[in-house]
Amino acid sequence: MKARHLASVIGCAAVLAAAPAWAEFKWQFSFSDTTNCLGSNGTPACNFGNTRNASSVTKLSGPDPAPAKTSITAQAWSNTKGGTISSPSAGPLETAYLPAWGSYGLGVQNRDMKNFPGSVPPGAGDRGDGVEGGPPEHAMDNNERSDSILFSFAGDKVQLTGVEIGWSQTDSDIFVLAYTGSGALKLGDLNYGDLTSNGWTLVGNYPDIGTNTKVAVNTGTYTGGTPVSANYWLIGTYNSAFGATGCYVGTKNKCNEGNDYVKLLAVYGTPTHDNKVPEPSSALLIGFAIVGLWRFRAARGG
Fold it and tell me: How far is 193 from 52, CA to CA, in rounded Å?
């Protein structure tokens, strides 16, 4: 084999070596029934700050043999602590209620809900968020208050790759943030506008996302070309505190076309296994085989 052929082989092997070796997973929040904030006797049954685990974990690709080692929990947050109706992006964050809406996914019911069937939930107070708790504000929304869901991965950091919603109304714009700060998670009592100066990194704004399909996120557009890995991810309906980068189609800002109402069905990602040596991918093994074959032929004078 001539030198130029050897260079080509080595180049191919280098490209193959760069192929991701860890598996991509889909963590889904699809349930067989609806578990919302109304108890069986018609009175509220809210537990603000409740968490939900994924209903299923599906390995989509790659050799990772142990998906159970990276577990995920979801928790609702909203800027209800002193927020105002006229400024839905303002006000410090506090936990909210995370209802499950069957096969559509997760919504958010914040502490300012006013016209919830029965009565105002314990501890919420009548702080005036319109029909929060009823349709369409039983979803994660940004009407009067801005809702979001915190996804926490135990163990390995995860490089988020996609988001899927199962339902939307009026509009469906979202933001995605990753906690890349040092030390304990910083979220409660901060305004959305404070997050990026307290350890959170804006991964992207994503306008007009469709239902029941994976929308690619965290491609590195916002982070210098390198996708982010983190244990904590915050996904919410569009919030002007994070600017409008990514919102424009031509000269039109698609994130300002109306209030957003979505139910979040699934997130996708790849555990980075920071302290482990990744298994070689199939493509990489083929690359090694090509180099080995060349060496064998060279030794025989072929």
Answer: 26
